[in-house]
Design brief:
Blueprint: E1 39-43, E2 49-54, H1 68-76, E3 80-86, E4 94-113, E5 118-139, E6 144-151, E7 158-167, E8 172-179, E9 184-193, E10 198-207, E11 212-221, E12 227-236, E13 241-250, E14 258-267, E15 273-282, E16 288-297, H2 300-308, H3 313-329, H4 335-348
Parallel strand pairs: 3-4, 4-5, 5-6, 5-7, 6-8, 7-9, 8-10, 9-11, 10-12, 11-13, 12-14, 13-15, 14-16
Antiparallel strand pairs: 1-4, 2-3
Length: about 350
């Protein structure tokens, strides 16, 4: 099992190997026992059509696949692909909740947004265990989708997940990944944009103690007037290690496409290891692309201001961290999940 976690989440372009950023390697990590039935609940499922496909179906093309060994393991240990179909506007978020109890959850999912359809999906993981999977999203012409993944897994958990999105002409897809749990997290996300399609990746994370977080986000501009954005905000504490690879790729034919990526990291310890590889790749000249990455400690002036108003040092830091995450939390319609996220941040910071 360990072999499937070697040479995964590779960068589309290699840099100096001594930086240790080209790929992810998880050593000496065993999985929990795989059980036939995982504790899962679905809210508002009457608004969607659920079906299954045989696992023989080919996985969508991705420029940054998690790894062939990983994909093979998922297919060998999953008998069916769960298909989630949205044919019209869905007003309420569809919420999938998984509760792991020292077990392994392995799954393949496919979300299909039909032409003009709208829908929001929220996937939440809690408990202790191993969470492995591949999620494919097909946004057909003119559709609008928001897919939110929240990782609340506790210590001694492993989360390795690959998400592939195909956005057809005029569609808009927004992916929000919130990584607040599991001591090892490997997050892979690829969005393919056709003409006039829009793809947004928003991510927030909190890593502490000796947590390891590896993120690989890629927006593939293939059509004219496509628009892509990657926005990542995070906090590192203790001896946490984080790698972020963010890529905007303008392919030939993606004229007048716009792409932007940005990562902001708040450092709470001088023992963390923070690595970032922001990339812009281009084979088309009539495009607009920009990227940036920044990291730093908490603003001492702001901290002093809050403490001068009667807050303790600990409460002041928590307030500043939560304030940094608020623009992302405002994108989530389910207030109970937002309240839980705020609680987890409060509990796990400091």
């Amino acid at each position: 099992m360990v072999n499937i976690l070697k040479n995964i989440n590779e960068s589309p372009v290699s840099t100096y190997r001594w930086l240790g950023i080209n790929e992810c390697n998880i050593e000496n990590r065993e999985f929990y026992e795989k059980k036939k039935q995982i504790n899962r609940a679905i809210k508002n499922k009457d608004n969607i059509l659920l079906s299954e496909e045989v696992v023989g179906e080919k996985i969508m093309h991705s420029q940054i696949p998690m790894g062939e060994a990983f994909r093979g393991y998922i297919n060998q240990n999953t008998s069916k692909v769960e298909v989630i179909n949205v044919k019209s506007d869905v007003k309420e978020p569809i919420i999938f909740e998984y509760k792991l109890n020292k077990e392994t959850c392995i799954r393949r999912e496919k979300i299909i947004l039909e032409e003009g359809a709208k829908g929001t999906f929220l996937f939440v993981q809690r408990g202790i265990g191993t969470n492995l999977g591949i999620r494919e999203i097909h946004a057909k012409a003119g559709s609008l989708g928001k897919i939110i993944k929240v990782n609340f897994l506790e210590k001694d958990s492993l989360d390795v997940f690959e998400t592939i999105v195909k956005a057809e002409k005029g569609s808009k897809i927004e992916i929000i990944h919130i990584n607040l749990g599991s001591d090892i997290t490997v997050d892979n996300l690829n969005i393919q944009l056709e003409a006039e399609a829009e793809g947004i990746i928003t991510s927030m994370y909190l890593a502490r103690n000796k947590d390891q977080l590896d993120m690989n986000y890629y927006i593939d501009h293939r059509g004219e007037n496509s628009c892509g954005e990657i926005d990542v905000k995070g906090v590192l504490d203790g001896e946490a290690q984080k790698v972020f690879r963010g890529t905007i790729d303008f392919k030939k034919g993606a004229k007048k496409a716009n792409g932007r990526e940005n990562e902001e990291v708040m450092l709470l310890s001088n023992k963390v290891r923070n690595r970032a590889l922001p990339l812009i790749l281009c084979t088309e000249d009539d495009v607009n692309g920009e990227h940036s990455a920044s990291c730093g400690r908490i603003d001492e002036d702001k901290l002093f201001y809050l403490m001068s108003r009667g807050l303790s040092l600990e409460d002041s830091k928590k307030m500043m961290i939560e304030g940094n995450f608020n623009p992302i939390l405002d994108k989530i319609e389910d207030k109970s999940i937002v309240d839980e996220i705020r609680y987890v941040i409060q509990r796990r910071v400091l």
